[in-house]
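Design a sequence for this backbone.
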């Protein structure tokens, strides 16, 4: 009886000492890295890097990258926000939905054309509706020529290839602008992307969604 009581006491003390994990974080935005990443000064003077969930903003070196970062800064910099935490990513950043009062900042970045819906991680179907509306209205990055509207995840993947945006395994680097104009002439999706992105061959992207030759690049 005494052993059972002592064991229960120890477990209770351990539970009381365990850290409380919250799915909500509040604080003031003190830094903006780009259009989908910010730094929050949370309660207790703790700085937390926040990655906005389900969206992907243009990289610094991409067209509209600086404008996307500025748009996020204008929304939340030096303002009090709260974050609905979803996860911690492989870089140690807290991934979540950021709110300025009742305003869903993640959704607002998509609605205003400052970020893409991140296909790989998106679970909120409403974000796709907002992106489609932004595209039709040509808001933000959607006002750019189709050849410059490259999804950030594709941009990063291309840059990881060999630093030039071309895949080493496709032989795309051997082609020259002006040699091909139509999807039926393309041998691969990588080649189609090269002609669209590097040569601005708009005939490869009839619906102007940033993806060339859908039959090749499904």
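Sequence:
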């Amino acid at each position: 009886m005494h052993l059972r009581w002592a064991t229960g006491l120890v477990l209770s003390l351990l539970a009381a000492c365990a850290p409380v994990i919250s799915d909500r974080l509040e604080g003031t935005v003190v830094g903006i890295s780009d259009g989908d990443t910010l730094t929050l000064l949370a309660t207790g003077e703790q700085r937390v890097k926040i990655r906005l969930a389900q969206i992907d903003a243009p990289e610094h070196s991409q067209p509209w990258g600086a404008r996307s970062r500025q748009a996020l800064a204008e929304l939340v910099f030096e303002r009090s926000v709260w974050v609905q935490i979803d996860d911690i990513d492989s870089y140690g950043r807290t991934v979540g939905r950021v709110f300025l009062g009742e305003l869903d900042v993640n959704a607002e970045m998509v609605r205003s054309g400052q970020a893409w819906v991140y296909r790989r991680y998106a679970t909120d179907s409403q974000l796709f509706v907002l992106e489609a509306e932004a595209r039709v209205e040509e808001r933000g990055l959607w006002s750019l020529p189709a050849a410059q509207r490259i999804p950030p995840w594709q941009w990063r993947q291309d840059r990881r290839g060999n630093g030039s945006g071309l895949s080493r395994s496709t032989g795309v680097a051997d082609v020259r602008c002006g040699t091909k104009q139509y999807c039926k002439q393309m041998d691969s999706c990588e080649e189609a992307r090269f002609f669209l992105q590097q040569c601005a061959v708009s005939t490869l992207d009839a619906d102007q969604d940033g993806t060339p030759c859908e039959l090749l690049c499904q």
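Residues 54 and 96 are 8 Å apart (CA to CA).
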